[in-house]
Every structure is written in structure tokens, then in C-alpha cells.
Design a protein that fits this description.
Blueprint lengths: L3 E4 L7 E5 L10 H7 L4 E5 L3 E3 L2 E3 L11 H21 L7 E6 L1 H12 L4 E7 L17 E7 L7 H13 L3 E7 L7 H15 L1
Parallel strand pairs: 2-3, 2-6, 6-7, 7-8, 8-9
Antiparallel strand pairs: 1-3, 4-5
């Protein structure tokens, strides 16, 4: 199985699936999950692709662009892992909420497009638009919150706008929060994500 950790909640059968950014670990987004909703279980997964000694969920091409063959293959691997995890840990496989940052946010988008029926929502922190060609999926049951930085030097803000349009056209209810900062996660983003969560699910 992929390297991971699981924290069980006695209050809910819903679970946050945490997907870190490049160079991160499976525990990186624990504080984000705790601020958004402490009542859910948490499953953090470490990417198993190593680039310059840093963990990622899928490979990039030499020019730095996303390797779509890699992300599709690794998406299937992660979905297989979720099947295994659901047979071991006490969470409802159809009550998964995604929290992903950067590389992990891009993987979250791919998961949604490949198997939308097992996900309830996604908080996507600084994603790009990972799949230019994709299998059509209906996302009518999904609520999605996206953040982007107006001064992000790694991902153009327009990528988040395009992603919002793409996901909305597939039926998802999508909110976009733009900051005046770069690629880093700001406290204000998590505050806005928490407000969105409370409005959507409380």
C-alpha cells in the first residue's frame, strides 16, 4: 500500500483525503483539515513518485509540464489504494472530501474526473489545469472550492479560472477565491475555505 496515515473520528463516517504538494508528506495538510472541520476522519497519503528527492503524485515532463500518461496511471493506483483503505479503516467510501495542495490538488482534480461518484467535495489549493484532454464526467453532486494567487509564479491565475469553468461546465458547484499572494498557502485562504465549508455542509 501507499505510505499513509489514518485518524479515525467517532463523530462521522466522512473522511478528508489529504494530498500534499511537491516535496511534502502525508501529514502536511493536517492543520488545514483541523481548521476546516475537526469532526471528520482524516486519511493522508504520500505520493510515491520521487523527483529530485521530493515526493509527488505523478511525473512531469522535462519542460516541467504535466505528464498526462503518468497522472492517469497514478490516479488509477490511488483509486485502488482507496478501495484497500476502505476495507481496512472505518470510513464510508462514498463520503470522501478531498483537500489537495499544488501537485496534490492536481491529483485531486484527476480523481474527481475519473471516479466522481465517491467524492463529496474538494478544496483545491493552488491547482493548475492538469488534464487538457479528459473523459467526460458528470460532477453534479460535487461542491468544489478553489484558491489561487494573483502573484503565483508557479501556476498562472488564469489556470484556476479555466479549471473553474471546466468543472462548472461538468455540473459541479465551484467557488474560486483569489489572493494577492503567490503559490504558498495563506491563513486567509483556509479561513475562506472554512466559511465555504460551513455554508455548504453545516
Amino acid at each position: 500500500m501507499l505510505k499513509h496515515f489514518f485518524h479515525n473520528s467517532s463523530e462521522s463516517d466522512q473522511v478528508f483525503l489529504l494530498l500534499h504538494g511537491t516535496g511534502g508528506r502525508e501529514t502536511d495538510l493536517l492543520s488545514v483539515a483541523g481548521k476546516v472541520d475537526v469532526s471528520l476522519s482524516v486519511l493522508g497519503v504520500r505520493g510515491d513518485v520521487i523527483e529530485d528527492g521530493r515526493f509527488r503524485y505523478f511525473s512531469r515532463k522535462i519542460d516541467g509540464s504535466i505528464d498526462e500518461e503518468s497522472i492517469r496511471a497514478k490516479t488509477i493506483d490511488l483509486l485502488d489504494f482507496l478501495n484497500q483503505a476502505a476495507s481496512i479503516y472505518p470510513f464510508n467510501k462514498k463520503n470522501i472530501h478531498l483537500i489537495g495542495y499544488s501537485n496534490g490538488a492536481n491529483m485531486a482534480v484527476s480523481l474527481i474526473l475519473h471516479q466522481p461518484e465517491i467524492f463529496k467535495s474538494a478544496i483545491l489549493l493552488h491547482p493548475s489545469h492538469p488534464l487538457k484532454s479528459f473523459k467526460e464526467a458528470r460532477l453534479d453532486a460535487l461542491d468544489i472550492f478553489i484558491t489561487a494567487g494573483a502573484r503565483d509564479q508557479m501556476v498562472l491565475p488564469s489556470e484556476a479560472v479555466q479549471l473553474k469553468s471546466h468543472l462548472t461546465n461538468l455540473g459541479a458547484r465551484v467557488s474560486l477565491h483569489m489572493t494577492d499572494y503567490g503559490h504558498e498557502i495563506r491563513d486567509s485562504e483556509i479561513t475562506e475555505a472554512t466559511k465555504w465549508w460551513n455554508k455548504t455542509f453545516k
